[in-house]
Design a protein that fits this description.
Elements (H helix, E strand, L loop, with lengths): L1 H8 L33 E2 L9 E4 L8 E7 L2 E9 L5 E8 L10 E4 L2 E4 L5 E3 L12 E3 L6 E2 L3 E4 L1 H7 L9
Parallel strand pairs: 1-3
Antiparallel strand pairs: 2-11, 3-4, 4-5, 5-9, 6-7, 7-8, 10-11
Length: 171
């Protein structure tokens, strides 16, 4: 989980579009809506109680991001899961590696991109768990989860280590 701390400290410029490798200037997003207030089409699962593993049924994961809320040390956080075009399931903490401290550095999906609600960075959903560093969702790599045929388990210990990057989340 040291990668979380290191990845969250990487300071590369936000406010740039990262879609299919290209960068374009993007104005900051001034939306103040918290993740739980997003449009009805967003798939948020029931919250997993604090101290328990988050279990993601692989059959439920599509190209539309699903969000799995939980808590750690009394702090609300979310995990996102999405199926890439190659069929693999990608996971990340739903917070931006750069904007996490703003309280609005979380992502919503628009088409096949994820948009940071703090700086407006547009991040290809295909790059979840592939990109590390920069204004991207914090990846949950293989060492920090258990991948089975029918489910992916994010252990409570991995979730607890991510708590600090959600400390300022505005709800």
């Amino acid at each position: 989980m040291a990668l979380l701390i290191g990845a969250s400290l990487v300071m590369v410029g936000c406010g740039q579009v990262q879609q299919d490798g290209g960068n374009q200037a993007q104005q900051p997003n001034t939306s103040t809506a918290a993740p739980s207030q997003q449009a009805a089409e967003v798939s948020r699962e029931a919250a997993t109680p604090e101290g328990q593993n988050v279990v993601i049924a692989t059959a439920d994961i599509t190209g539309q991001a699903r969000f799995y809320p939980t808590t750690a040390a009394g702090t609300s956080l979310e995990i996102l899961a999405i199926r890439a075009a190659d069929g693999s399931i990608r996971t990340a903490f739903n917070t931006c590696q750069i904007c996490f401290d703003s309280g609005r550095g979380y992502y919503v999906q628009e088409g096949n991109v994820l948009v940071c609600q703090n700086c407006g960075n547009r991040f290809s959903a295909e790059r979840v768990e592939v990109e590390s560093g920069g204004c991207n969702p914090v990846p949950i790599f293989a060492d920090d989860k258990i991948v089975g045929t029918n489910e992916i388990v994010i252990p409570a210990a991995s979730i607890a280590q991510a708590q600090q990057i959600f400390a300022h989340w505005k709800r």
